[in-house]
Amino acid sequence: MWRSLRGAGAVSRRGAAVPEGRCCRRRSHVWDWHQALASAAGLRGGNAGANSRTCATVTMPEVSTDHLDEQQVQLLAEMCILIDENDNKIGADTKKNCHLNENIDKGLLHRAFSVFLFNTENKLLLQQRSSAKITFPDCFTNTCCSHPLSHPLELEENNAIGVRRAAQRRLKAELGIPMEQVTPEEIQYLTRIHYKAKSDGIWGEHEIDYILFVQKDVSLNPDPNEIQSHCYVTQKELKQLLDKASRDEVKITPWFKLIAETFLFKWWDNLHNLNKFIDHEKIHRM
Q1: 3-state secondary structure of 241
Q2: Apex CA 225: angle with CA 83 and CA 195, to 5°?
Q3: Mean pLDDT over all residues of the chain?
């Protein structure tokens, strides 16, 4: 049964007015990702692009956020990790700039992750994104989807430990899962996908997405500003949801659709033998 959070305080896409200058300046002091992308092309290894990270003032599109939810607008100031198409770090930029279609169309790409959390009954925890979300509001999706930040703890790349730390952080922020209940060591990194999708005429996604699996019984206390409902589902129930989405009866996120149509059920059938699916070398272009 889907557990709705509407009674806990419904959220609207229209929030309080955002003070002038917050997250919506025309010019910002960020990494010159145009130059970095060009310099990193064809390079390999963890140091690719290291010499190309030039701090510069660049022109970014001006987009009003006054009509959006204030809490979600505040999150647009977070600094995401910019990468090239081989997942080499080339700099950092705001979550806002990373999700504007105008920048995505010019090649801006950032690092992300998708968590699939199963309970001990082998049921998958799904969420429905809140109507306050700036990209893909009201869509059904996997357990948790977000971004590691440009912070030393989340930039660390050995066995994707930085990404797994970010996943632990966001499981707490979105679903209220106590951090001690899901540690980075309990999160299994399988592989990566590269996809691009538009949410509307202004906002979209362009990510290399780390696929993370967890199997554990956890406590939930979701934030209604992030999630409007959640539910554990069986494979049969998820297939029914996907069938409804194919008839436009419900909406699902594009990354979840891609993963569900390609890999998810094969992985789900092997929750206790996932090691054979680990592939940290390949990036699946979707």
Answers
A1: helix
A2: 30
A3: 84
The single residue of 23, 80, 139, 145 carrying the catalytic annotation is 145
Predicted TM-score (pTM) of the model is: 0.81
How do residues 204-222 score in pLDDT, each as one tens digit? 999 999 999 999 999 999 9
Q: Can you say whether residue 199 is alpha, beta or left, with left for phi > 0 and alpha for psi between -120 and 50 degrees?
A: alpha
**Token pair listed for 201:** 């005429």
Supply the DSSP symbol for 263.
I
Q: Name residue 217's amino acid.
A: D
Q: Residue type at 279?
A: D
Can you tell me the mean pLDDT for 41-68? Answer: 49
Catalytic annotation present for 207:
yes
Question: In this predicted model, what pLDDT tens digit does every residue of 142-153 receive, in sequence order?
Answer: 999 999 999 999
Backbone angles phi, psi at 137, to 5 degrees: -65, 150
Alpha-carbon radius of gyration of the chain:
18
Q: Helices marked H in 16-109 — which ranges? A: 33-40, 70-75, 95-98, 101-104
